[in-house]
Fold:
Amino acid sequence: MTTSSSGQGVSLGMPELPAPDYPDDVRARLEQDAREIIARYPDSRSALLPLLHLVQSEEGYVTRTGMRFCADVLGLTTAEVTAVATFYTMYRRRPSGDYQVGVCTNTLCAVMGGDAIFEALQEHLGVGNGETTDDGKVTVEHIECNAACDYAPVVMVNWEFFDNQTPASVKRLVDDLRAGRPVTPTRGAPLCTFKETARILAGFPDEREGATEAGGSAGPASLMGLRLAKGEAAPARVVHPRDGGPDDGGPHGRPRDAAVHLSSHDAPQETSASDPSHPQGPVGEEGEG
Ligand code: FES
Structure:
């Protein structure tokens, strides 16, 4: 949409609809795929997320044409499709590279080196967040927690994990990607291009040899909590800030069992109102009891 008060168009950044349609042959192919996806759901609109991956696999990002296609085949408005496509960060809204290199800069990864990796990577490639290298190979972006905190700092390439990274290892990684050298994720399926990944996410089988078997099992860091729960691993030393250490007596002088750390959910701690060091309880507002 444009507006003008002086004869010159001013973009308001709004989508210009209706978008052009796909060429006939592309639309026919995508319609066939879409029918297969929609048939999996009792309510056709539930197929919107995989359909957005499908159109992303066609052009590498979710175009206005792709959103129009989704709206057409699902009987939705383009506004409804746009609302979903712009909500989820897995859908790209502009052209980008074959390899989306996402550096986790959420809290744990950040303090473990994610911030340093992100900075070094941008400097190494000469691109900023969300930008793509001139050769069209690598798009850099910072991403939020990907539930791999036990391997922080984590980098993802087309949603495949590269664990325990450093600035040096990530520079090597993107250099290999740009040079076409083979790159192997720490776990999971072998790497493929962003478009190929999008088609798999749309729900079509990954037909590469060995890809579905290469799931990768949980590593020692992920299993530590389970081992603790089973009593197979030595309990971690728990520091109790209010008492100075695990060897102190617990609240009210009760001996603390060093092998058992009860969370506040297991055994609610006494409040300061019953804490012997604060026998009068918390200081109330003036005028309160
Ligand atoms: S904080 Fe990076 S994976 Fe969770």
Q: What stands out?
A: Residues 1-9, 243-289 have pLDDT under 50 and may be disordered. The radius of gyration is 26 Å. The beta strands are 2-3, 10-11, 99-104, 138-143, 155-157, 160-162.
